[in-house]
Batch of 2 targets.
Target 1
Amino acid sequence: MKYLYALLLLFGLNVVYSQVITVKDATTQEPVPFATILFIQEGKPVTGDYCGQDGRFTMPADKAFDTVEVSCIGYAPKVIAKADITPIILLTKTAVELNEVVVTKTLPKKELVLGYSDFKKSFVSGIGKGIEEVVFIENMNNKPLEIVSFLFSIKKAKAKTAFRIHFYNISPENFEPGAEILIHDVINYIDAKTKGLVEIDVTGLNLELPAEGAFVGIEALGVIDETIGNFIMDTEKGNIRFEYNNLIDKPVTFIRNRFKVRTWEDTTRLKNALNNDSTNYPNASFGLKVVR
């Protein structure tokens, strides 16, 4: 009887933690698409995943974790103890302070492409689900510039893949990504067999490149089913293969695994692995189109 009780208890726990949850906006009660689910054990992330386009996610029964962190750009993150997980998790939008609008005389605008999207390709490198890669874009005009689009070069997409765009200020402590500039979540898709230069229009976001420059890049979310718009089993890494260049004498590309660490790593280790004897570093061919 004691063993039977133990088995029933274990079965009950598996039912609880294999349940489907839905992440919703606390105000509108609408699903929050592609929210990040991070599983934490003793204060350290151990693994993670994303909700689907419908905000739904199946909690795993076989993962060792004590808390879950649910987050999405534009919302306050929520940390929940394992025992307190419920079928619906509500995220609250963060308050946004709008700048005062000053009306001035409209002058003709000139488009510029900043960054490295037109640099000659040296090699390609793929990123898989949960990997985030950003590149520092210098602002040589030394004043804020309106951002028109985000540019990146890829060799070829193997399948339709969802990705999240990120814009970060420079960290006040060191030269690496700091606070997120975006106040709204921006999800885009790369269709299968897409290759070459990809341009993502961001004019509707009213973004500015700060005078000191910023880090811009992509977080790979996973392969999407063409018919239902949600994730399918993603067993292959590197569904997005970015072009890299080696024309810069410093590492301006930073990478992290969102499900494993909160810290960033530049491409110094990649340079060493490539046995690159030059003083230049491998950097992803990302860029921005701006107007001044």
Note: The two ends are 77 Å apart (CA to CA).
Target 2
Amino acid sequence: MTSHNRCATTLSALDSLKRQCDLSAGTELQIHLVDAGSTDGTPEAVRRHHPDVALMSVGDDVFWGHGMRIASRNSRGADRPPFTHQLWLNDDVVLDDDALAHLLTVGHQEPGAVVVGAVHDGERTTYSGRRGPGLDLVEPTGRPEPCDTYNGNVVLIPSAVRARVGDVDKRFPHGMGDYDHGFRVRKAGIPAVVAPRHIGRCRRNPPLTGSREPGIGPREALRRLASTRELPPRAWWRYCLRHTGYRAPVLMMSPYVKTLVRAGVGR
């Protein structure tokens, strides 16, 4: 897990982990959280309410992808017992009480597969696996559904898969790292499936923020789009080269051109 200035949200996610039930006898959960320079008291609150969480504080220049690599590295320390699975969990997800048991059950039914947990906001699916040319959300159907890649909100990864594919690529400091990981999993011949039902709640990120904020103008919109939080050009170009084939040059330019047009028209 990673966190940054979302104290109440992070605590809710940790609380939901502690409520997990119906786990097989002997199941042990070790939580590794990397906090990226929070100034709202997140580290202190985590230590106070969840003293068993392995918490590392780093600078606020560490974004999701880098933080998840650090958390994974910490979980594999020499003083740590070997694990059977890693669970990626965003700090804005509140898991159902039996979510982990459900994911592990699906993992036993689909040996060696990465299992993705779909989450919702009370009305619709917000994050899940992704499938098809448009990377559409995969809806839970009551049975494991194959996917091409996945959002990194809730992902259960067998230890053998982590050892073979690795963590989020260091070339993706924030966004795209989860999609890239999913595509690398599939290219390695490893199945990825969405669990049969939703396993928790998570709101979608607000739509009109960042480069999409109304009235900010083309230059500011492009600056925000090219920032680490959205689509930094070097990382985006590498993603396009890896996963979009001959369409890479067109897809590389498309979001920047669309952002300039949208911001210009908006003014």
Note: The longest helix spans residues 248-266.
